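re: ur question from yesterday

yeah so i grabbed the chain u mentioned. its 94 aa long if i counted rite. heres the sequnce exactly as i have it in my notes:
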Amino acid sequence: MSISDLVQRTRQFVSGRAGAYRRVFNLESLDVETVLVDLARFCRAHESTGSQDPAIAARLDGRREVWLRIQQNLKLTDQQLWLLYGANSPNVKG
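ran it thru and got these structure tokens back, copy pasting raw so excuse formatting
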């Protein structure tokens, strides 16, 4: 498999995964709104994850990472996701 084939397959994977997130979290659904509000609260989407206890801070940071991953796949374009996830390698251009 050539590098360009690998890049193309990776781009398709990133785009397909984003599509899956958008189907699961269909923003037109009232249920999804309820779930996203709950996840935002649980994942501390709009507040600090800082804590004097390093274990608590790490756990809260992990929750926040999940929230950010969901939001990235719902709000960013396929090209933005490619730049974020797929094109981080200096050897991959696309």
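noticed a couple things. Helices lie at 3-24, 30-42, 54-75, 78-86. also The chain is about 70% helix and 0% strand.
anyway ttyl
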